[in-house]
Amino acid sequence: MMVQITSAQAAILAVNSIALGGLLFLLSAGFSLIFGLMRIPNLVHGSFFMLGGYFGVTFLDRGVNFWLAALLSAAAMAVIGGLIERFLLRRLEGQILPQVLLTLGLAFIIADICLMVWTGDPWQPSPPPELRGTAQAFGMFFPLYRLAILGVAVVIAIALWLMVDRTRLGAMIRAGVDDPVIARVMGIKVSQLFTLIFCLGAALAAFAGVMGAPYLSVYPGLDFEMLPLALIVVILGGTGSLLGALVGSFLIGFLYNFGQAMFPDLAYVILFLPMVLVLVLRPQGLFGRVEA
Amino acid sequence: MATEALTLSGVDAYYGDSHVLHDVSFALQPGRLLGLLGRNGAGKTTCMSTIVGILKPRRGDIRLFGESVAGLAPDVIARKGIGLVPQGRRTFRSLTVRENLVVAAQPPRHGEAAWTLDRVFALFPRLKERQAQLAGSLSGGEQQMLAIGRALMGNPRVLLMDEPSEGLAPQIVAEVGRTIDRLKAEGQSIVLVEQNVKLTLNLADEVVIINTGRVVFQGSARELEGNEAVISQHLGVF
């Protein structure tokens, strides 16, 4: 059942795991903050990733610079996310199940629209020219672009951490995650934080979608492949915890790649078993807090 | 007549279909302390939740210095000047002591002395020592001080304190009592919700007793002190 792999294969798998981990962090950081603050698993988050990817390949198709395309896609998705939060989710404030169902419905709608606009064919853009080569280390070649994904994820992780951990705005967000009712009573505009975090989460997901496009490509169904991964990451790491999202992302990155290579028959068991164990043994996640 | 700091008039509130506050009316004069007494489950905390906007009143009006705040969102009411020290303290456990205070800061209203981080730390030196610690790691008494400090950071015109003595050791209760006395001396208008009748009678100017969601007694603290019949009937103590 177990497939033997060589050390060279293991090295490549490790790079792929790190690249996927980086993408998953960008996806799940926002997912986790939305989950923590608004108490809903945002089931449209995978669609933000896919739609962001499609926006990105469209910009790239028109000759836009890769990084600019990623930023434009993120900005567009921030606006879309903001509109969804402000005009749809807000109307159902406090009603968790209807909010979750709304995000699920939106995910299906977005999937259909994407299929109509971008057809069923996969789009795989080239990485930016400066990152097309390989890096040589220990007698092996590693694709530069996949290492770059890690670099970008680390930079964004640090920026997010500084915002959430070191600013008054970040403290307000954490207060809202801790106790949204009392946060409001203390004068914190929790509704505005909801919109802000939703925009930020959507933008990060879209940015990840563009970053991931040269590696994973963009195709119908990508949304519902990424969503469960984000869900597992957040359940493993704990909702509302950036550190949890970071550790969970790389854990899942490795489990996913090595699991598929070494135990192809059991790929899903290896992916979901840790989630089941965490849910049973430590429901708040590895880095989450116990609800008071 | 001067405007009352806080008035409730004919307030009815519901949890779903269950009618929890019946025609509740009382008034707090500026700079005074009103004690709100009642047994467990009498509706005291519900009354606080209604004033701060967590629960919307179905009927009646709530006014802060003459301005109606009934039905507004909790964060709007907070910024208009109602501060709450919640029952069970409910500090933000994963935030540091300092962050707990900073997130609740609101600019002072014109002509009123402002509460700042420094002034709160002067009032509670223990919080200053522990400012970098997570609130969740504080003792019960320290958390209570933090909850009071946090409410003060909002520079409230009216301070609501919901059972600040609950679950604290007697010497800490005495300390909380001295703090409340000091705030009152500085002119802070306060509603003190308590089950501790003795503490309340020591601090309060006026007293309101709630029973099963209705106001059953309203008068001065002196009046209630001499009225053992009312005390034993509605509070079941002494």
Average the pLDDT over all residues of chain B and give the rounded result.
Answer: 92
CATH topology of the domain at 1-81 and 191-238 in chain B: Rossmann fold
Name of the CATH architecture of the domain at 1-81 and 191-238 in chain B: 3-Layer(aba) Sandwich
- According to DSSP, the number of beta strands of chain B is 10
CATH architecture of chain A: Orthogonal Bundle
What Rg of chain A do the Cα atoms give?
19 Å
Spans of chain A of at least 5 consecutive residues whose pLDDT stays below 50 are none
Topology:
The complex is a heterodimer of chains A (292) and B (238).
Chain A: H1 7-38, H2 45-61, H3 66-87, H4 96-118, E1 134-137, E2 140-143, H5 144-166, H6 168-178, H7 180-185, H8 190-216, H9 222-237, H10 242-262, H11 267-281
Antiparallel strand pairs in A: 1-2
Helix pairs in contact in A: 1-5, 1-6, 1-8, 1-9, 1-10, 2-3, 2-4, 2-8, 2-9, 3-8, 5-6, 9-10, 9-11, 10-11
Chain B: E1 6-15, E2 18-28, E3 33-37, H1 44-52, E4 59-64, E5 67-68, H2 74-80, E6 82-85, H3 97-103, H4 117-123, H5 125-129, H6 140-153, E7 158-162, H7 170-185, E8 189-194, H8 197-203, E9 206-211, E10 214-220, H9 221-225, H10 228-234
Parallel strand pairs in B: 3-8, 3-9, 6-7, 7-8
Antiparallel strand pairs in B: 1-2, 1-4, 4-5, 9-10
Helix pairs in contact in B: 3-6, 4-6
